[in-house]
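Figure 3 (text version): structure tokens given as input.
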């Protein structure tokens, strides 16, 4: 009886969907074409990069995440972008994010070839090598914005909360431990089983990483103070694809 009613429900759903598709299909397709009209991606050049402010770079990422959420990406000829960027790259932003398979920066910000740098390490922290990479991106290559992006449900943050010991990962997680220590309270449960505690540590880890970039890179601090680059934190929600800037 249960199976029969589930079948009927499924059949009803499919019928309604077919009806909506048939009735609205042509106008939806037309609306999508209109939305895409004139919205091809611009490949970054020396000129576009030089003309961009840090605020505009941030807005471009916000707009890109909105397009991603709406399922309305820019039209992009990746092979053409490969040809256009082969002789030189002029990305407008650099991201520090986790290796997590659910948060590919190029997908979630709707960006193409040559648009953004992305340094990825489990737990999105910075060390000397990543700071050097950020200096390369901004001081040598002209990127206008640094974004440190954490994400919800981060396995590395959970591992740091639980004091996981595993080969080289132990040392990797040590970079997140200052964030664990800096989150007070949650005395009842300071383990990965406490989702609120884990998220508080993830938020703190982003804030501390942004602060560490300023502290440990005089080059980037100077560029930020002069308004040549922006520096901000962000959090990606693996449940809905949304990026919230801090
Ligand atoms: Zn992660």
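Below: residues designed for each position.
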């Amino acid at each position: 009886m249960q199976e029969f009613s589930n079948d009927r429900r499924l059949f009803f759903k499919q019928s309604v969907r077919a009806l909506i598709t048939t009735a609205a299909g042509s106008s939806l397709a037309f609306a999508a074409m209109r939305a895409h009209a004139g919205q091809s991606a611009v490949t970054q050049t020396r000129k576009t990069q030089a003309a961009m402010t840090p605020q505009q770079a941030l807005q471009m990422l916000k707009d890109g995440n909105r397009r991603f959420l709406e399922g309305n990406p820019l039209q992009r000829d990746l092979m053409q972008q490969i040809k256009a960027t082969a002789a030189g790259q002029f990305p407008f932003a650099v991201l520090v994010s986790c290796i997590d398979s659910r948060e590919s920066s190029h997908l979630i910000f709707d960006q193409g070839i040559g648009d953004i740098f992305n340094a990825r390490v489990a737990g999105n922290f910075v060390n000397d090598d990543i700071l050097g990479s950020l200096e390369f991106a901004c001081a040598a290559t002209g990127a206008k914005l640094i974004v440190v992006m954490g994400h919800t449900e981060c396995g590395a943050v959970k591992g740091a909360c639980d004091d996981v010991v595993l080969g080289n990962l132990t040392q990797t997680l040590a970079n997140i431990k200052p964030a664990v220590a800096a989150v007070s309270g949650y005395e009842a449960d300071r383990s990965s089983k406490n989702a609120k505690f884990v998220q508080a540590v993830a938020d703190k880890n982003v804030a501390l990483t942004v602060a560490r970039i300023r502290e440990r890179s005089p080059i980037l601090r100077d560029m930020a103070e002069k308004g040549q680059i922006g520096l901000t934190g962000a959090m990606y929600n693996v449940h809905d694809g949304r990026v919230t800037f801090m």
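DSSP finds eleven helices and five strands in the chain.
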